[in-house]
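Cross-check.
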Amino acid sequence: MENDIEERSSLESILDYVQILWRWLWLLLLVAIAAGAVAYYLTDQQPRVYEASAKAIVNVVSRTDYYDSYTATYTSQRLAETYAQTMVTETLLQTVAEKLGYPVTGNVKATSVENSPIFNISVTDSDPQKAADTANAVIAAFAEKVMRDQASRYLELKSSLEAEIADLDNKLTQVNSELSILEIKDAEYEAAVERNKQLEEDGLPTIPVERDPQDYVSRAELELAKAQYQSNRSSLFANLQQIRLTEVQSATTISQLNQAIPNTTPIQPQPLKSGALAAVVGFMVAAGVVFLIAYLEDEIRDPSELSRRWGIPVIGVITNFSASQEPLITLSKPRMPVSESFRSLRTNLQFSGIDAPLKTLLITSASPSDGKSSVAANLATVIAQSDKEVVIVDGDMRRPTMHKVFKLSNRLGLSDYFIRTPDKMTGVVKKTAVNGLSIITSGSLPPNPSELLASTKMQDVIKLLAKHFDMVILDSPPLLAVTDALILAKSVDGVILVIDPKKTKRGAIQQAVEQLKRLDARLLGIVLNNIKVKRSSYYYNREYYYSKHYGKTGTDSTPAQVEVDDVNVKQGG
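Predicted model, tokenized:
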């Protein structure tokens, strides 16, 4: 049964929290508004920050075949990611500052577009124009840097080949020069030979002409060297051209897709966004504090929790009244809504006694100051007002209060009965100002109240009173303070547990209920005492009923009876 009760509590627990939020909604909204206003004001005082951005694309040269095009595209994407992670360096920013003519004061950030050769440059600055100029200058400076880096990779190789080609050109020039000298010698030799022929024809003496044999050897060597130099030069030139072609084919360039333009709308601060976020956080923090306080209070916030946790019905809900000034409110102000609460409790007790006779009733509480004595006195009063003979016994022989409530002497009382014979009750049972209501005060305080209450004589007192009165109501000390109430609980027809939800903790209620169950005491139900009518989930607002239909004084008796019946139905009898 208990497990079934707990299983049904999930939705009801949520409703409990909703009720807590609703009860403290004004405070939560106040905290949220205050937090939002403070955040808005502080954020609005911060300097404005503007953002400008530009996009650039990485271009990798590729041939026309599909495989090379795919490779180039993949390489471009990887290079874009790499550039985005490594491009923003101190050296680059110094180059940008030289281009702009002033230091870079903004924050430069590079991000790549996923699965794309495009990367984005964003700059935040207090000046929108500076932010835009910086973004454009960063892309331009980085594009130049990429070109310089690529050129430097081939520069040494090209320089080496060009130097070798220049050296071969010099050697070829020298060989050609020497060959030219040999050609001149050949021409001079042939001219001398021709002159000698002419002199012979003219009969004149000839001039001896001789050819140096070494010239033939030199010519052959020079021709061979020339051929070798030309061959080497052709090979080196072909290599140089191949390197230049490779450089062009593998060139990576950075192209700017769009120019960054000044944006006059600041990205920071955002007072509205900050205020809204602070309001939400403030609301949540305040709600958390409210829930924490509600949890630490450990109070019963809803009467249905009693039946949900322990399966005990609430048979009465007593609104708060000044018990210290007017303890018998049902006698002094019988038409007040609180008096109707006691009549409703009386009716519920009548229904509780249908199956089993209910003549002796014990009223106790889980902890002190729950108002059990005022509940007992007023309940006895309304029962007596229904033409019943009622006696109320002050069983609290430690801190008695009933004689104060009814303004009677406590010289003779219950404790004095134990030293008298059972048939001599004169002076012990006293009449009160209420017709049909008698009282037995506690009498002089004994040193051993628990032993007296557990004695056979106490059993005889209860039986004797039950024969002479229609209802015997016993007021006892709190259950958790002493054992007196547990002793009396075994001798009565029913027990009523009075709790003050604002004072009685869940642990105290649970312990009290468990003690009564262990004794197999007949726990009729719980009476909630000192309940505020307005803004309460415990009670139906009788003041509204009275003020709207019959006036606050409740002079008509019919409305009072209708109200009692209505409460009985709502509380489940």
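The longest helix spans residues 128-202. The longest strand covers residues 50-60. Passed to J.P. for a second look.
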